[in-house]
Amino acid sequence: MRQQYQRRQRPHHWVLLSVLLVILVILISAAVMVNKATKPLTQNQAHAEAVAKKSGHLTSTSNFYWTNLDTTYYTVAGKNKAKQNVYAIVPKTGNNVTVLKQTDGLSRNTVLQRVWQKNPKKVLSAALCVFNGKPAWQVSYLNQSGKLCYVTYQYSTGKMLQQISNI
Fold first, then answer.
1. CA nearest 140: which of 68, 64, 51?
2. I need a labelling partner for 45 at 20 to 30 A (CA). Which of 5, 12, 37, 104 fits?
3. Phi-psi region of 61 (alpha: psi -120 to 50; beta: other; left: phi over 0)
4. pLDDT the model gives residue 5
5. What is the pTM of this model?
């Protein structure tokens, strides 16, 4: 009797181990896929931070934003040597870094509050860029119909520079 009981337990043990092994393989595969999917963003963030720090505009960083409507811009928020909060807008090429004091214009939260007044279904992104030679906040969102929309506000005055709706 004992031998039969022990034989019945062994296959059950191997089934459990096999299921755990399959789950482990799935988790590792998912982690690798997430890593590969986020690698370009991570590399771009590191590049933008390095360019901003190398140019002497930032000593530390706190946030990173990215926009790509007409031209790709990476914005790095942080502090300069004088311990002031600044934004460094870095074009994809890495040339002509634009540095703005955060106190000289609209905050990201203020811009997002304006967009939420439009009653969007979802805000997708809000990032600083250079629009017609001027720093601007560019926000993308989905309206209640689920259509893609963009709105651009001038950084210094808050004036709406462009609105693209129902794409």
1. 68
2. 104
3. beta
4. 54
5. 0.75
